[in-house]
Design brief:
With about 425 residues, this protein is α/β, with parallel strands linked by helices. It has 3 domains: about 5-155, Globin-like (Orthogonal Bundle); about 190-325, Alpha-Beta Plaits (2-Layer Sandwich); about 325-410, Orthogonal Bundle (Arc Repressor Mutant, subunit A). It has 16 helices and 7 strands. Helix 3 (about 45-70) packs antiparallel against helix 4, helix 3 crosses helix 5 and helix 14 (about 360-370) crosses helix 15. About 35% of the residues are buried.
């Protein structure tokens, strides 16, 4: 029979050293426990849990071994690794209460494992074990909390200064003093990106704080933006989207599509963006127009597909459609062209699909599960009711414009498509 180790040993075979012998395997087990008991760990990517969190847990077990086996203070580099991890988590937006909860859960597991190996037969042994466990929690809580708050303050203060500059640029009132305070200069012109972020799956998990998942999504996107642009970009983002400003002399237009793809991968959600270029003193009007175009793109996409995909639109790609959506007699006339189809949903759906598929009769009939002759009949009915022939180029243009105008028409005689998830500027 194996004899339990006396708790006051300081040898390499002490209770903690024995219990934590395979620290990597034990760390993985603990991380899985964290994922089940600390709800917000569910919003972390699996590779983060397997990598960074597991590595930090191994380091914490090393610290715990030294303290619980009575070897004195852990090595400085071990404590420094814990500080560095707390700083990374602060920048990533992981709530400090989640981190502290995980530390306590890990300490409980460590305590249980050590007591199973140590001989605790007297009150003094019990007090000794409790004292060392408290010392372990004190060291870890203090180290993590101080490092987290230090990094959080630094990030928050820097972010606040840059937000002030970004807000001023968006309102055409930025000054050189604001730029200097933010550690940058005001460029002559900027790439202006109006972006929309789709909801992250974690934002729909019951029992989780959706705002936490949303903030974490934003932090990942902002971190990727900073890295990709080498800190040149300014942004105001909410969980639904916002605006990004990039000095036009630091990035070519062709580099913007890869940037949007990078942001989507970092945020782990589809990103839709509309791009334009504006002088530093004309950003306000440009931003308003680009967000209107983003809203247009979202609405048009909602009429064509149920699945959002990452895409960058250039200003010119949506300029004609944007003009059609401007309030006025022209939009009203175009929207009115579809009034005869308001009580003909089959014809309206046929028209949308026919235009979407660029007049491919066979594909349209296949998707609608109808005979091509039935499709031809419907197209003739659309022509008769609207006065525009969808099989002719001029008729297609009129009907496309009418569908766009109808999407933004607010009168009672047309059916308005859902607005989708419009971006907001934080």
């Amino acid at each position: 029979m194996q004899t339990k180790k006396a708790f006051d040993t300081a040898a390499d075979t002490g209770p903690a050293a024995t219990s934590f012998r395979d620290r990597t395997a034990l760390a993985r087990e603990m991380v899985q426990h964290f994922k089940q008991t600390v709800a917000n760990c569910l919003t972390m990517p699996d590779d983060t849990l397997r990598g960074d969190v597991t590595a930090v847990t191994v380091n914490c077990l090393t610290i715990a071994t030294a303290i619980l086996d009575g070897r004195g203070t852990p090595a400085e580099h071990e404590v420094a690794q814990l500080e560095a991890a707390a700083g990374r988590w602060a920048r990533a937006g992981i709530p400090v209460d989640v981190i502290l909860h995980a530390l306590h859960e890990g300490s409980k597991m460590a305590h249980a494992l050590v007591t199973s190996q140590a001989t605790v037969t007297t009150v003094a042994d019990c007090v000794d074990l409790g004292t060392r466990t408290i010392a372990l929690l004190d060291l870890m809580n203090t180290t993590v909390t101080m490092a987290y708050l230090r990094e959080y303050r630094s990030v928050t203060e820097h972010h606040a200064v840059r937000q002030t500059l970004t807000t001023a640029l968006l309102e055409d009132r930025a000054t050189s003093a604001m730029a200097r305070a933010a550690g940058t200069t005001i460029a002559e012109s900027y790439h202006v990106l109006a972006i929309s972020l789709a909801p992250h799956p974690a934002e729909h998990i019951d029992g989780l704080d959706r705002s936490v998942a949303g903030r974490r999504k934003i932090r990942r996107a902002q971190s990727a933006l900073t890295h990709h642009t080498r800190g040149d970009a300014l942004s105001l983002l909410s969980s639904r989207g916002g605006t990004i400003l990039i000095p036009s002399d630091t990035m070519t237009p062709n580099a913007l599509a890869p940037l949007i793809k990078t942001l989507a991968e970092a945020a782990q959600v589809p990103v839709v963006a509309v791009h334009g270029v504006a002088d530093a003193d004309a950003i306000k009007a440009s931003t308003k127009t680009l967000h209107e175009m983003l809203d247009l793109a979202s609405r048009l996409h909602g009429t064509r597909s149920d699945r959002t995909v990452t895409r960058l639109y250039r200003f010119g790609e949506l300029s004609a459609e944007h003009q059609v959506t401007r309030p006025g007699p022209a939009r009203d006339i175009l929207a009115a062209k579809l009034i005869p189809l308001a009580d003909q949903p089959a014809l309206l759906d046929t028209l949308r699909l026919y235009l979407l598929l660029n007049g491919n009769r066979q594909e349209v009939a296949h998707r609608l599960y109808i005979h091509p002759n039935t499709l031809d009949y419907r197209l003739k009915r659309i022509t008769a009711l609207t006065g525009a022939d969808p099989t002719r180029a001029d008729g297609q243009w009129q009907l496309r414009a009418a569908l766009i105008a109808q999407t933004f028409d607010t009168s009672n005689h047309t059916t308005t498509a859902p607005a989708g998830d419009e971006p907001t500027i934080a």
